[in-house]
Every structure is written in C-alpha cells, then in structure tokens.
Amino acid sequence: MLNVILCARPELLYEAQKAALATHCEVEQTEEGLPSALVHESPLPTSRLNVYGVIPPDLNSWERPFAELLDHDAQKIVRWWHRNPPRKPWSISVVLDGGENFFPDFVIGVEGRKTEDSGLLADTKYFFEITQEQPKTYAEHPAYGRVLILSLQGGAQWMTVRYDERQKKAVLDQEFRLSDAAGY
User: What distance in Å separates the CA atoms of residue 136 and residue 71, rounded to the nearest whole number?
Assistant: First the structure.
C-alpha cells in the first residue's frame, strides 16, 4: 500500500525527509566567533556597513554589486553586513532537505527584522540555475528564517527567487527592494 501511495503522491516522501531533517537539526554556537579583524596583504576598499569596515577581497563579480547596494542604503534599513565564507569555523550554514550544508553568501542586519540579531541570510546568483539551486529557495535556518535568494538580471536588477508550490519549481518573483528586507 505504501508503494501505491508513493506512486500517486511522490512528494510525500520528500516532505517526510525534509521534516525529519528539520526535527533533528540543531543550531550550534561556534566556539570561536568572527575573527577580530579581516587581514589582507594589500589595503582593501572601505565599506560603510561591513562589520570589518572593508569590502572583503573574495567577493565575485555579482557579490560586489550587492555589497555596494547594502553600503549605499540611504534609508538606514541595513544595520550591518558580513560576507559569510563557506566552511569556516564561524560560518553560518543551512541544512538543505538532502542533508547537505549550504552557506548563504551574506548575513545582513536589517532594521525591524524579527530574528536573532535582526539577521537575514542572503544568497546572490548571477544566473539562477533552477534545478541545482531550487532547494535553496525553501531553505530555512532555525534562527534566521528563510534564506533570501537573489538573481542578478541584466547585470543591474536584483530579482527575488521563490519556490512556486503550484508549478513545483523555483521562479523569479519580484524586484528586490531593501525596504522589503525585514519581511523576507
């Protein structure tokens, strides 16, 4: 009978796996916090809102414009931002439904956001590859909530990406505005 149910509704097994992983996932505070300084062999450009006061050297060609967008916030929505490097002892990860870790590109302190440290996790993409990236569109961190996935369109416009339940796939949703960041 279980085989019949799963043939008729294969998403049930996937949803059960996701729920089981979420039940057993724990948030752990790292033994060491962020490093006290960002050290680099050459001077780094300054940043108004980065926690270190500089633009990190490891930003790629689409992360840099996003960091600049955060720094140029004139509405005082962004309190601070941090580049979340993958696989460091202090990095924030989100467990995807398959059990693997995902490291969103940015942690942003957003005025009015009702999460730990007013934090919002954001992951930026130059080109959003739907099949590989889709699990990230519904990834949730227990303390920071759903991850904001953004796709840079035409080299200039950031669009939010969300999972469409009806179509069962990730879709471009709407233009990203910092004024909406607290609600993501």
Answer: 25
